[in-house]
Design brief:
heterodimer; A: MetI-like fold; 2 domains; 13 helices; 2 strands; about 5% strand; B: Rossmann fold; six-stranded mixed β-sheet; about 35% helix; binds adenosine-5'-triphosphate; binds magnesium ion
Amino acid sequence: MKNDDIRASLMKRSRAAKNERFGKTLTGLCILIIITVVVSIFFFVASKGLATFFTNKVNLWKFLTGTIWNPGATDAQGNPQVGALPMIVGSFAVTFLAAIVATPFAIGAAVFMTEISPKIGRKVLQPVIELLVGIPSVVYGFIGLSVVVPFVRRTFGGSGFGILSGTFVLFVMILPTVTSMTIDALNSVPRNYREASLALGATRWQTIYKVVLRASTSGIITAIVFGMSRAFGEALAVQMVIGNAMLLPGNLISPASTLTSVLTMGMGNSVMGSLSNNALWSLALLLLIMPLIFNIIIRKIAKKGAIR
Amino acid sequence: MAEPKEMITVQDLHLYYGQQEALRGVTIDFHRNEITAVIGPSGCGKSSLLKTINRLNDLVPDVTVTGTVKLNGQDIYAPNMDAVALRKEVGMLFQQPNPFPFSIYDNVIYGLRISGEKRKNVLDEAVERSLKAAAIWDEVKDRLHDNAMSLSGGQQQRICIARVLATQPKVILMDEPTSALDPISSSEIERTMLKLKDDYSIVIVTRNMQQASRISDRTAFFLAGELIEDGPTRDIFMQPQKKETEDYISGRFG
Ligand SMILES: Nc1ncnc2c1ncn2[C@@H]1O[C@H](COP(=O)(O)OP(=O)(O)OP(=O)(O)O)[C@@H](O)[C@H]1O
Ligand SMILES: [Mg+2]
């Protein structure tokens, strides 16, 4: 009889219920497709990237710490030369340096826009930031190539290609993102903290750095980490200015390379299934894992921020 | 030394938000070591009045203030008056408890820190003294380094009181300090206030008539930006001189 009830209700299903079912199916399908795509990408990259270690028997430790990248050749012992350390160092160097340089500027701009002059901020800076976000990376790279590289060459010597130029280009690229996220963080500090601070006899400046910035620390760190994961994954613009030498960078103005630049350079020149191809996939796997780690860090920080 | 009994004297105070006149010529005194209750219907300018006394109104764009407000005989709107220094003399408590999302300790010493006090023993001593004066020492003495946001609303408000007391102001302004709290927390705050009036002059805005009659020495009734009547609380509640006052306290409007 329970079945009969269900059957009865199924028989006279309303139009609304039909619509609802249709909507549910549609959205469910979309999600299913997205998940499938993400999982297959991950699976594909992982299977290819791990092949270097399982099929070609490259030692993971050697891969991470080796300094010579020449997948086509073997060394004296007959081991393939796939040392990714130069690229790993290059990637982290440009990422951290860009973040370090961008952070004070982003905080300064955000403080100006939220605390000092919201009017000018909204009218002038907001559109500028939005514009900067929209510029394609190849344009940044092109400007870097024609302006930054010659500038670095003239000022610091060398070829001008290198980590310094890469840092500079990435700094400009992540600045708008970090700034606008920092603005959100500052705006989410309740107004009444500011009132309380001023009413206690704090100056506006004291209120900004002792209350507003302190209360939004976790939001600001999230912004920075987000900017870093963007910088880490940027390929084109960096590749145009970093010099693409697969050497461990000795200083900031000698040509270097990043994980992304090696990938974009090498992608077209290797045969699917060969070691040199698999080695590139291993780099891609690294690039996939790092943002994941950045993401985990962001979530940890956000959680810590929520408790406070 | 005989000090005049007036702590704050307000004369012919007008306050405009842009074109809108929120206070229309207010003249009133607030007495030393007394609690003055400010009552009146919503929008009559009670908060605006408080915020002229610590010049928190300066922060609102397009505010115009005319008339004089004197603290201890000193014109606080005089050109050479420093609003930041004034606010160290005139503390304020808000409707919503608003401790910073820092530790209890850091909250209480905030006012001293921004004045440049760094000596640990001075800060420690101020924390204990202020928390005791705010009647919350026993509840938090073992968790001074916990986040103040983890306390209950009533405890948070008393942390805010302690934070104000730590800077040793002369006057404490309270804008509906208990309206967001439950009755028990409210009565704890009230008890704290009664103890404080020996050392401070208190002006409290409240919508709660019982509260006004329980704790205040004097009461001022405002309507539409004007002071209708003020005097000893007893007189205002027992034999108001003005019809509007009587109507309001008997609950006929507002
Ligand atoms: N920042 C402001 N900008 C413009 N107008 C304001 C501002 N603050 C208050 N007002 C106006 O001034 C008048 C008095 O407001 P005020 O907040 O002083 O009233 P109140 O007596 O405290 O009311 P309540 O009991 O609701 O808190 C109101 O008409 C209000 O709209
Ligand atoms: Mg009010």
